[in-house]
Amino acid sequence: MKELSSLQIERLKYQPKLPSSLAGGINNLAMIEGSKTECVKDAEQIKELFANTYGKPVVTFKTTSTKEACEKRNIGVILSGGQAPGGHNVIAGLYDALKQSNPESKLYGFLGGPSGIIEGDYIEFTPEKIDAYRNTGGFDIIGSGRTKLETEEQFQKALKVCKDLGITGVVIIGGDDSNTNAAMLAEWFVKNNAGIQVIGCPKTIDGDLKNDQIEISFGFDTATKTYAELIGNILRDANSAKKYWHFIKLMGRSATHVGLEVALQTQPNITLISEEVEEKKMSLKQIVDYMADIVARRAAIGKNFGIALIPEGLIEFIPEFKAMIANLNDTLAVLENDSAYKNADENTKFEIIKGKLNSEDAAVFTSLPVMIKQQLLMDRDPHGNVQVSKIETEKLLIEMVSARLSEMKKAGEFNGKFSAQCHFFGYEGRCAFPSNFDADYCYSLGYNAFALMKFGLTGYLSSVKNLSAPASEWVAGGVPLTMMMNMEKRHGQFKPVIKKALVELNGPVFKVLEENREKWAMEDKYIFPGSIQYFGPSSVCDITTETLRLENAAKLTAV
Predict the structure, then answer these.
(1) DSSP assignment of 286-304, as one string?
(2) What's the rounded Cα separation, in Å, for the pair 459 and 184?
(3) What's the whole-model pTM score?
(4) Whose C-alpha in 146, 209, 256, 298 is 20 to 30 A from the C-alpha of 180?
(5) Are strands 270-271 and 167-174 parallel, antiparallel or unpaired?
(6) Mind giving me the DSSP string for 114-142?
(7) Which of 96, 176, 206, 208 is catalytic?
(8) What's the mean pLDDT in 489-502?
(9) What is the arithmetic mean of pLDDT over 346-374?
(10) In what order do the strands lie in the sheet with 167-174?
(11) Is the alpha carbon torsion for 125, 131, 132, 136 positive or negative?
């Protein structure tokens, strides 16, 4: 029995494209510095916490005819947080640039995420190891983890491990929290004259790690195309059977970039956007009424079927739920060491929580079905927050829409049928074979990360821009991590974190959804994207997301 699929065999042969500014070789680069930078918010606090790395300039690279040899270097790399398609190619790009700079240089991979650098758990990469993972999905080359790097003891252990291996640079591949770790580690190393650089790479399928310098996080392209294929298949099934409403929850807790992108690729009947719900202060009842109205109007013209996209984090954007969850997070933080609470049965826990919440939040909590209460009280995430992804919002909405339609039927306002199916798409997209775009982008990010180290930078995020153009026209460089930071409440305390980018309701991407919502609701303008294409014309294989296309087109129009 063969160990590799035919597709994997062919993908291993794929040579990712680099920006022309990097394609001339790692030893033929010049760096161009921009002006000094400021953080997005809370400048005084961030500047005080990052006194040694704050305010650095944005940089870009260009190819020169002058070739500069590099000394031998040992670099370490960490995969951090949830998986995202393309992570292996970041490591491959980093490895190739390192070896191109000096064949005697070594790349170490820390196993199991940030804990690897603390515990000294690592492997040394070989050509055979790297070649077996090129252009593949997953993080299984070294594994990942969610350990926070924030204590003096952790930093001291990481320093010792790096010194023992002769490591002078660490690349952390992760999302906003992981790159906050990178910023903290970079600051500590500089403060303690460790002589170790730290560079981050922007990863998250959620798409919420982005700004003017980071146009898209890697993995978003592949994940949304994977979800769009699945939803396109369901759309076609719904349009064939004509008897089910499919309520589909999509991964993306804090932002609805995934849901919005997939909606643009498939054009379902209903798309809920968390940021819009919050902006309009929509109650749960208003959301249910909106959905029930579309179901009823479609039924009136003989269409007892449809598709509704629901963002994973919707619940905490509904005003009454957001306030309740914030209060609940603080309450659970206090109760985590309360033995009476920990040893209580379920109903007693509900009563204890109710007594600790303020009256309005207690009323919301009490009104919820037992299933939702149970999910709210599950183990909290690493930041001390309720795990919103565990809340089965799609089932809650099906139950409430069904109840509302029953009321409408009694009032003579609904004469159709409502039969619903629920789905949650998340893990299906996290380890998919990376698209050509993600394969190229990730390889460029890794290659570029070493370029930043070559010029002695630390506390930077690898940045590759102009991504809606062909890869040869991409712009490689780096952005200071402190530039993206602000202060947020975690575990009841304010801490520095990279600010998440939410859907902009005045932006060009949301406007397309807004303008087409009614037409898509009633006219079944479904699109069936099919599977990701890797071989064929560039117009099919190298296309990027609608989000990136629309955002960059808007920038060009503005100029």
Answers:
(1) HHHHHHHHHHHHHHHTT--
(2) 8
(3) 0.93
(4) 256
(5) unpaired
(6) THHHHHT-EEE--HHHHHTTTT--SSTTT
(7) 206
(8) 87
(9) 90
(10) 29-36, 57-63, 475-480, 460-465, 197-202, 167-174, 74-79, 106-110, 122-124
(11) positive
Residue 35 CB burial class (10 angstroms; 0-12, 13-18, ≥19):
exposed
Residue identified by tokens 């515990």 is 119
pLDDT level of residue 450 (50, 70, 90 thresholds):
very high
User: pLDDT by residue (tens digit) across 162-192?
Assistant: 999 999 999 999 999 999 999 999 999 999 9
**Number of other residues whose CB lies within 10 A of the CB of residue 74:** 17
Q: Please report which confidence band the pLDDT of residue 382 belongs to, taking 50, 70 and 90 as the band edges.
A: low
* Domains located in the chain, CATH noted: 69-219+434-464 (3.40.50.450), 220-430+507-553 (3.40.50.460)
Quick one: which H or E segment has residue 233? helix 220-241
- Cβ(94)–Cβ(134) below 8 Å: no
Token look-up 């981050």 returns 200
Helix intervals (H) in 301-432: 319-335, 339-342, 346-356, 359-367, 370-376, 393-410, 427-430
Give the amino acid at 228. A
C-alpha distances (whole Å) from 543 to each of 428, 445, 530, 546 are 21, 18, 14, 9
Q: Say if residues 199 and 457 touch (Cβ distance below 8 Å).
A: yes
d(CA 183, CA 445): 17
pLDDT for 328-355, tens place per residue? 988 988 898 888 998 999 999 999 999 9
pLDDT confidence band for 1 (50 / 70 / 90): very low
Residue 389 has pLDDT above 80, yes or no: no
Q: In what order do the strands lie in the sheet with 306-311?
A: 270-271, 306-311, 245-250, 420-425
Tally of CB atoms within 10 A around 204: 28
358 pLDDT above the threshold of 50? yes
- Name the pairing type of β-strands 270-271 and 306-311: parallel
Distances (CA, A) of 245 to 238, 289, 311, 415, 443: 7, 16, 17, 16, 41
| 176 catalytic residue (yes or no) | no
Q: List the one residue out of 154, 17, 137 whose CA is nearest residue 79.
A: 137
Give the chain's mean pLDDT: 94
Return the DSSP state at 405. H
Task: Measure the CA–CA gap between 136 and 127, rounded to whole angstroms.
Answer: 16
Strand partners, 127: none
